[in-house]
Design goal:
5-stranded mixed beta sheet, 2 domains, about 40% helix, single chain, alpha/beta
Length: about 350
């Protein structure tokens, strides 16, 4: 059930920071609000709920005309948001947002699409790696952009990097399949690439390995929160409905995703959808609703990043980097499933 708009506005009023709050509900001002959502990667199964919200008309019902702007290898997510070109952005990982905040970007995390990062260390039964301790004496393949994750895990476990062989790899799973490495990093959602490893492959999730992290994190600018929080809440409320419908209609949601982005393989996406559900919904979302996040998890991630020297500027704080105001305002709209 949707919250009455006046109740929502009272909840969001504190964000105005003394400025006039000018964003009104569509019914009050009689027009559709056009917004852009900037993603940091190509549209895929991680955005299935967003695509469902678009296809099922939930954005339109909220008075929004939404452009889902895909990213890619050379895309930048923060500048369009801080320049007020995109109202909302999405990071693949909460750590990206922390680093941007440390570098001076005036952004805030407002919701978490995935309850944990889909990043994992894959191994095979012959040489299983089920914990960071198991990495001692092994050859660990990881991408250059993900080396800091391995460094953080080793630091937390008290393991010197010299106790293992770290091999630079790409996103092809061949090095593990061919025995060149004993473990390799990849996304658990990349079903097609992982298929060459067989169904008995072992996945050590980043979270289980010791590095807490949220994924597909929605963020916005401080300016937008002060001036247009109602529109942001309308978007999160509508996209939450999309994820709720996906939870109840998984096969049909995959059809909507592939119909919208026909470069995706329908069979592969159908095989992956249960993994997506497990990443997006758990006991916490059943209690608090889709999109929820725990500030303590954010604090733990910040502390670990600070310890290994990841921040180039001021160390971000939970209060500076996050706000739960949008989640509070949409509490009645976000499905409690898990």
């Amino acid at each position: 059930m949707r919250l009455p708009n006046l109740d929502r506005r009272r909840l969001l009023g504190s964000l105005a920071a003394g400025a006039a709050f000018v964003s009104l509900a569509p019914s009050a001002r009689g027009q559709t609000r056009q917004i852009i959502v900037q993603y940091d990667w190509l549209m895929s199964n991680g955005q299935i709920g967003d695509v469902v919200a678009q296809a099922n008309g939930y954005f339109a019902e909220a008075g929004l005309e939404v452009e889902l702007m895909p990213g890619g290898p050379n895309s930048t997510t923060v500048p369009p948001v801080t320049a007020n070109q995109a109202l909302v952005g999405q990071f693949s990982d909460s750590g990206q947002g922390m680093l941007a905040r440390s570098a001076g970007a005036p952004i805030k995390m407002i919701a978490a699409g995935f309850r944990q990062s889909p990043f994992a260390y894959f191994s095979l039964p012959a040489k299983p790696i089920r914990s960071v301790e198991d990495m001692r004496g092994k050859r660990i393949g990881t991408q250059p952009t993900a080396r800091f994750v391995l460094d953080a895990l080793l630091d937390k476990a008290g393991i010197d990097p010299g106790e293992l062989e770290i091999v630079q790899v790409g996103w092809d799973m061949g090095p593990l399949a061919n025995g060149q490495v004993d473990a390799i990093t990849a996304w658990v959602t990349n079903t097609n690439a992982l298929s060459i490893l067989g169904d008995d492959r072992i996945a050590l999730m980043q979270w289980d390995a010791g590095l807490p992290s949220y994924a597909n994190v929605y963020f916005t600018s401080e300016r937008a929160l002060a001036e247009d929080a109602d529109t942001i809440a309308a978007f999160i409320g509508a996209v939450a409905r999309g994820w709720g419908w996906m939870y109840e209609n998984r096969a049909a949601s995959v059809d909507l995703l592939v119909d919208a982005y026909d470069q995706l393989d329908r069979a592969v996406e159908q095989a992956t959808v249960e993994t997506i559900v497990a990443l997006a919904f758990d006991a916490a979302t059943k209690e608090h609703g889709w999109g929820t996040f725990d500030p303590q998890v954010v604090a733990d991630q910040i502390a670990l990043y600070e310890k290994i020297g990841q921040f180039t500027g001021e160390v971000p704080t939970v209060e500076g980097f996050t706000t739960t105001a949008i989640l509070d305002a949409t509490e009645g709209e976000r499905p409690k499933l898990g």
